[in-house]
Amino acid sequence: MTPSSFSGLDLLTSAVIVLDDSCAVVYANAAAENLLESSARSLVNQKLSDLFLNADDLLQVFHQAVEHQFADKRQDLTLQRSGREPLHVHSIVTALDNPDMPVLIELRENVQQLKLDREERMLDQSQANKELIRNLAHEIKNPLGGIRGAAQLLELELPERQLRELREYTQVIIKEADRLQTLVDRLLAPHRHPHIVGDVNIHEVCERVRSLIVAEFPQGLSIQRDYDLSIPEFRGDKEQLIQSVLNIAHNAAQALSDRIIQGDAVLTFKTRVVRQITLAKVRYRLALDLHIIDNGPGIPAEIRNRIFYPLVSGREGGSGLGLTLAQTFVAQHMGTIECESRPGCTDFRILIPLP
Can you give the pLDDT at residue 191? Predict the structure, then answer.
């Protein structure tokens, strides 16, 4: 058996490498080139310890395979690489009946592990955001009342002959204090209002949001609906969910401003049911899968990983609170929001457990 005997493995979507008796690579298929970000020519003759900084687990299994202690062995690994992102993979090590090439390793990227890690980061971020917002809002709120009150008293004390020209300045202070008060109230809104639980039909939520968007953007925007009407009702706060979907849909409509002018803007509401899904480390039998999709320019790359952070906005004049509040409300339903974006398609995905 020669390395050319493995050429058929190039058709596989999982990465395959074949090792010789010294633990050096003698063959790597096309998927391995993609996964390891190296050409087959550069991978050949490299040892596992050259490819991965923490190759001890794989080396131990390699020696067990050489000694024919098993036919194949499977395990989930996080493989560290120099200067590159770690690989979360499911590895299958198979012993071959060839003393010159005794071991074949198959690596499949562990998408589930990546998803769990991303959800864990989002949960930690959401909790940190809530604490930051709550503390910051209270710190701002207390002196705001004093500033506004002092400006009002100052205005009352102004001499009549100077009132007209100086009142402009006191009004600036009062109006800016009111604007900041409104911002603080919005920051504290999720923590003030009680979570009112009732039966929720997600399509009633979508239709309510659709009517609001149509009222604001009556021309140039087409709203498409792709509903799975078999989705059952679930217990939740209808108003919070309307606000969450509205915040996402309104952001999408604003991002479509150029296409609305051209008349080819499209916003899509799509509902499905997903089965056997893990959300926040809890396994659920069923979950709502709601997509809000637009054909706009996409989210700028520089903020794509921070869109759920408070006060981060890709729009001039945006408050940067809409998505933060949406994530907070959905998290109160034990769900999460995911986003994939590229020019021509931005897809916000809301996942909420179903009974």
Answer: 54
Q: Is residue 50 pLDDT above 70, yes or no? A: yes
Q: Are strands 221-226 and 198-200 parallel, antiparallel or unpaired?
A: unpaired
Q: In whole angstroms, what is the distance from residue 337 CA to residue 330 CA? A: 7
- The confidence score (pLDDT) of residue 142 equals 74
H-only helix segments in the chain? 30-36, 40-43, 48-51, 56-66, 111-157, 160-192, 202-216, 238-255, 257-262, 322-331
* 60-71 burial code (b ≥16 CB/10 A, e <16): ebbeebbeeeee
Contact 237, 197 (CB under 8 A): yes
The torsion angles phi and psi of 202, rounded to 5 degrees, stand at -65, -25
Question: Mean of the per-residue pLDDT values for the chain?
Answer: 83
- The number of beta carbons lying within 10 Å of the beta carbon of residue 130 is 16
Torsion sign (Cα): 309, 314, 316, 317: negative
Query: 126 pLDDT band (50/70/90 cuts)?
Result: low
CB-CB contact of 84 with 37 (8 Å): yes
pLDDT at residue 36, rounded to an integer: 87
How many degrees, rounded to 5, is the angle at CA 21 between CA 15 and CA 24? Answer: 50
Question: Which SS3 state, helix, strand or coil, does residue 131 take?
Answer: helix
pLDDT at 245: 94
Note whether 330 and 350 are within 8 A (CB). Answer: yes
- Asked if 47 and 105 touch (Cβ cutoff 8 Å), the reply is no
Tell which residue, 186, 200, 285, 191, has the closest CA to residue 241.
Answer: 200
Highest mean pLDDT among 197-201, 204-208, 277-281: 204-208
